[in-house]
């Protein structure tokens, strides 16, 4: 296998990227390997942004021009780091017509780290949404990929909500609910393969 190894310095983090014959990238950082398609990343222009601000401007433009179904960007802060998104439950789901507000905070090392997403109160009663608003979704944790757009992450969240058959809280909600939303530094326990 012929590989081209590049070392990219982003802030104080060093990332190694291997380009393979099949045009997929394997990215290693913090000991974790991620794989994503070169063409998809480069065609979106998301995986190669020169800086944080430009990436967020493109993300906002992408979201406003083609938002996920039943989602609306309510506001962004002046520094682009905080978004509020209104999600209305899709027709035919147990959340049909119910409006929820999602808060998104972009950390300094975004996109290497996922955005922090949580629901403001009232939160949806869902087996992967804690009553404090935190969301147990692997796309925001262990399965996060730096080339994922905010729109695609929200689409994963909408899909998770839409697939619910009953309204209930996670089994460990009582332990987690006392923490401030978005500040959990503990890893989530994924209770099933649907989150």
From TrEMBL:
EC numbers, comma separated: 6.3.2.19
Alphabetized Pfam families for the sequence: UQ_con
Residues making up the signal peptide according to the UniProt record: 1-16
Gene Ontology molecular function terms on file: ligase activity
InterPro entries: Ub_conjugating_enzyme, UBC, UBQ-conjugating_enzyme/RWD
Region of interest (Disordered), ranges: 166-195
Enzyme class: ligase
Keywords from the UniProt entry: Ligase, Signal
Residue ranges of every copy of the UBC core domain listed in the record: 51-195
Alphabetical list of SUPFAM superfamilies matching this protein: UBC-like
Keyword GTP-binding attached: no
Keyword Lipid biosynthesis appears in the UniProt entry: no
Protein name in UniProt: Probable ubiquitin-conjugating enzyme E2 W
Originating organism: Babesia microti (strain RI)
